[in-house]
Amino acid sequence: MELADEIRINAPKDVVYAALNDPEVLKQCIPGCEELIKHSDTQLEAKVVLKVGPVKAKFSGDVELNTEGAPDAFSLSGQGNGGAAGHAKGGADVTLTADGDETILRYEAKAVIGGKLAQLGSRLIQSTAKKLAAKFFKSFATVVSEESVS
Questions:
Q1: Which domains does the chain have, with CATH numbers?
Q2: What is the DSSP string of 85-130?
Q3: What is the pLDDT of residue 150?
Q4: Residues with Cβ < 8 Å from 69, sequence gap 6 or more?
Q5: Which residues contact 146 (CB under 8 A, 6 or more apart)?
């Protein structure tokens, strides 16, 4: 499964990059996130509850950041386990481009799922993933824009 999109955020690039590295901001924005622990500058652990069609699962997972191109670009990869519901692993490449006082965030993500979730059908999984990504980035843009103003 692949996802790609771009979003315009009403905040300077350095503010957006800092927010993408702030566990408190991310926890507010990740749909279903119950816990987000930063173990180091490049390693995070998350606990997320998601409902995909008839399957509801609590995922526990690890995310690793690669910040070599930061603050213009970075990538992340991770994997999560939802017990009987299944598992997922994937990654994303993110680029940040300054546009005046705003920032354009572009991402390309890939994910592979297994278990009960994989049996639901690719259209349901794809549409749910798009909705979750859109919800995250809309929330993220709102939080970052508000923090940038205050």
A1: 2-149 (3.30.530.20)
A2: G-EEEEEEEEEEEEETTEEEEEEEEEEEEEGGGGGG-HHHHHHHHH
A3: 64
A4: none
A5: none
